Structure formats: C-alpha cells, structure tokens
C-alpha cells in the first residue's frame, strides 16, 4: 500500500505536522513542547495528579514529576493537597499559566483554521466525524483488550 494513502501514516503525519507548526507559532512563549502539552492537559483536567498527567502525556511518573517541578519553578502550576487525601497533590494552573493557555488556544485555533482552509465546512465536519468514529472504536478495542487481560489475570490467580 502506498504510504501517503495509508490511514495510520496520514494521521501520524498530520498530528506531527500540526505540532511542529504549533511549536513554531508559540516559540515566543518560551515553552518547550512538553511544557505546552502539560499546560494544555492540566487546563483540560484541572486538579489532576502527577500519575494522571504522566498517563495522559504517555511518560514515566518520574519524568512527569520533573516536568511539573520546572513548571512550578516557572510559576505556571501549583501543587495543592487533595482535600480527602493529604498524601495526594493536585496540579492546578496559576493565573499566569491560564493567560498563556488562552493565548495557546487562540494560536491553536488559528493553526487548525489555516490547515483546514482548503476544505469547505461539510468536508471539515465529515473529517471530524470520521476521526471521532475511529477514536471511539479504538477506545472500545482498548477497553475490551483490558477487560480480557483482567479476566485472564483473575483466572490465573484462581488456579
């Protein structure tokens, strides 16, 4: 199959190119890709834990901890004790980071708008619907795989 038409390569290439273009556009904010990704994830999931952030960013907990440390040192995030479990620290954006996040969202919208400018509204809507459908199917596949793995573990433990 021709790579340029292979769905997996296309999705990967489009995501990589979007990140690269976004990196170029946010360069003046003096954030690394890891930092802006973390700020975006914390914005979308305020009060997440280090473990939750690490999972979302697909990185090790220790690496996520060092990233959070740098963001905290730069005044972008703060760790707050969980009200029900003092051992757990919840991560929140500071007002300065919230302002940066608003700027990043505006830049992201402009980038996407420009990237999709050759498509009419119906084509954009259809592309989004296709990706939503594929995402939902992949999530279902992963959930079924996890349930199967858990069932096998329970069966092995029972023996």
Concise structural overview:
The chain is mainly alpha-helical and 159 residues long.
Strand order of the largest sheet: 1-2
Integer-rounded radius of gyration: 19 Å
Mean model confidence by pLDDT:
91
The biggest beta sheet, please?
Answer: 2 strands, antiparallel
Per-chain topology:
Layout lengths: L6 H20 L6 H12 L5 H8 L3 H13 L3 E5 L7 E5 L1 H21 L5 H38 L1
Antiparallel strand pairs: 1-2
What features would you describe in this structure?
The protein contains 6 helices and 2 strands; from the N terminus they run ααααββαα. The N and C termini lie far apart (46 Å). It has 2 domains: 3-118, Arc Repressor Mutant, subunit A; 120-159. The protein is flat, with a radius of gyration of 19 Å. Helix 1 (7-26) packs across helix 5 (95-115) and helix 2 crosses helix 5 (95-115). With 159 residues, it is mainly α. The protein has helices at 7-26, 33-44, 50-57, 61-73, 95-115, 121-158; strands at 77-81, 89-93.
């Amino acid at each position: 199959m021709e790579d340029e038409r292979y769905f997996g390569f296309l999705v990967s290439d489009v995501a990589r190119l979007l990140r690269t273009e976004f990196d170029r556009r946010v360069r003046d904010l003096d954030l690394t890709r890891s930092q802006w990704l973390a700020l975006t994830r914390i914005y979308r999931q305020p009060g997440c834990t280090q473990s939750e952030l690490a999972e979302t960013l697909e990185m090790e907990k220790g690496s996520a901890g060092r990233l959070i440390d740098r963001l905290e040192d730069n005044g972008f995030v703060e760790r707050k004790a969980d009200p029900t479990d003092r051992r757990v620290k919840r991560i929140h954006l500071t007002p300065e980071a919230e302002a940066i996040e608003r700027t990043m969202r505006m830049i992201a919208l402009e980038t996407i708008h420009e990237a999709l400018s050759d498509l009419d509204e119906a084509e954009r809507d259809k592309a989004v619907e296709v990706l939503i459908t594929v995402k939902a199917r992949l999530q279902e596949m992963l959930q079924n795989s996890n349930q199967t793995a858990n069932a096998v573990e329970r069966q092995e433990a029972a023996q």
